[in-house]
Amino acid sequence: MLSLPDSWVWDFWTAELATDAGPEFHLFFLYASKALHDPDRRHVRASVGHAVSPDLVEWERVADALVHGQPGDFDQTATWTGSVVADPAGGWRMFYTGMTQLPGGQLVQRIGAATSDDLLTWFKVPENPVITADPRWYETIVETDGQVSGEEAWRDPFVYADPSGAGWHMLVTARSSSGPVDDRGVIAHATSPDLRTWTAHPPVTRPESGFLHLEVAQVAEVDGRHVLLFDCLGTELTGSHPGRGGVWYLPLDGPVPDPDRPWDAAAARRLTDEQLYVGKIVDGPAGRPVLMAFHNTAPDGSFGGVISDPMALRWEGDRLVADPPAGIDWDLSAG
């Protein structure tokens, strides 16, 4: 478990480095000082921390990976969630969310990139941001007669290679430009031939699927079966999914989005309740996929703010099952 005595920790992503001594796991995580007193204030104070582990359990904190930019930068307020991939051209490439808070409080989110030769020292690329919300399909901030409306949710990039070798896919938390305002949550899609130039496409899920936001999406494989993971709290459920939130999953026929057949987020099930949040499937040291998440609620009901130990995963028929950490019992009932 990763716990910082003076800071809350929440969203995270991982990378694995092969060494002579075995796998070395790198954990990148959002954190903010507990001197804020109120954990709800953490989002506009987030930096990207970094820790290393041989087993996903014992972590050694190292130098931070990223901090927010200068006034006028796309990430001038905070740096948010992302993902890391090995660059075929050499080194590593991190895609992350840059956030700017407007004077009226609205949060404009865009996707940036940073590079590293060793996973330890990171440099933001000069082309940032590398992709923004395309208003043809996605909701963006609109200013009319000095009044700002709408939302610009464009965060949590998850980047993965096309199995055919034909480039890269990016999944993004976004909102549709159409549909009921409280039910526009979608997972956006972009592609790249080289991790540098990105093209936006229509979303891979439909609006009106029951979610205000589908956060921190991931495509992974468990025992030869592909699955989409995303997250939504109960306070952001609408329509077909009233009640409790948590980590959600949807079995997939394959990892590549089909533009003619959007993934049916309305059919997603909960993998955990919202005691944990931002579930990530990680290939563990034993070669088995495991689930990690951050503790959203502590035993006393306060914000947890620590990252869990790995949890075993398995299929029971068509249902994906995670073994909860000690002291936690899932409540996966509806309502």
What does this protein structure show overall?
This protein is an all-beta fold and 335 residues long. It has one domain: 5 Propeller (Tachylectin-2, Chain A). It has no helices and 23 strands.
Structural class: mainly beta
**Whole-number count of domains:** 1
Q: Indicate the radius of gyration in whole angstroms.
A: 19 Å
The CATH topology assignment is Tachylectin-2, Chain A
Question: Which class in CATH terms?
Answer: Mainly Beta
The H-and-E topology, N to C, reads as: EEEEEEEEEEEEEEEEEEEEEEE
Chain-averaged pLDDT: 94
Attribute tags:
mainly beta; Glyco_hydro_beta-prop_sf; GH32_Enzymes; Glyco_hydro_32_N; 5-stranded antiparallel beta sheet; 4-stranded antiparallel beta sheet; hydrolase activity, acting on glycosyl bonds; Tachylectin-2, Chain A; single chain; glycosidase
